[in-house]
Amino acid sequence: MEINNNTIIKDNDPKIRDKSFVVSLPLMQEDRELMEDMLRYVKESTIPEIAEAKNLRPAVGISAIQVGVPKQLTAIVCTDIDKNGNEVHYEYALVNPKIISYSVQKAYLEGGEGCLSVESVHEGFVPRHARVKVEAYDMLQNKTITIRAHGYLAIVLQHEIDHFSGVLFYDTINKENPFEPIPGAQVI
């Protein structure tokens, strides 16, 4: 499937709010190919020459519903900084990811969030859990894994998993005071 800015479903299309279905394992060939296409999109979207040539918006993740497929599939490629100040690269092709535990402490991105399916600007803090534990089958490792995430990766995982329920990042921004401080939250 050719994925670019023209084929990604936008938030004015009610399909983006559809619930995504659990995917059966082992993966069918069509699911494997879709996951490969989504992973390729995310990787290529951050290479300026390729992104411009293929009409890709920069991304760290994409979920299948964003290309009109209501299945619990998401591809994530991002870089974060660990507690020692070292860069850590994450790359996942997750099937049926599920948050199995999370911290009480909240976190949010200081600059707000964006989404391939949202072209207009929605400013404000998006409250997320500071830490999450996610279980999923990872197609890249060909096994079920547990991800203990904090910081940026935790936010990316929650953002993508929200797509499975039809939730967009701006749904949880405080409508009356978008930049109201979130008590005790980690600012990322």
Task: Please render the helix and strand layout as text.
Layout: H1 29-45, H2 48-54, E1 61-63, E2 73-81, E3 87-102, E4 106-108, E5 128-129, E6 131-138, E7 143-150, H3 151-163, E8 186-187
Parallel strand pairs: 4-8
Antiparallel strand pairs: 1-2, 2-3, 3-6, 4-5, 6-7
Characterization of this structure:
This protein has 188 residues and is of the alpha+beta class. It has a single domain, classed as Alpha-Beta Complex (Peptide Deformylase). The protein is 20% helix and 27% strand. The chain has helices at residues 29-45, 48-54, 151-163; strands at 61-63, 73-81, 87-102, 106-108, 128-129, 131-138, 143-150, 186-187. A five-stranded antiparallel beta sheet has the order 1-2-3-6-7. The protein has a three-stranded mixed beta sheet with strand order 5-4-8, covered by helices on one side. A hairpin with a 4-residue loop joins strand 6 (131-138) and strand 7. The radius of gyration is 16 Å and the shape is globular. It starts with 28 loop residues before the first helix and ends with a strand.
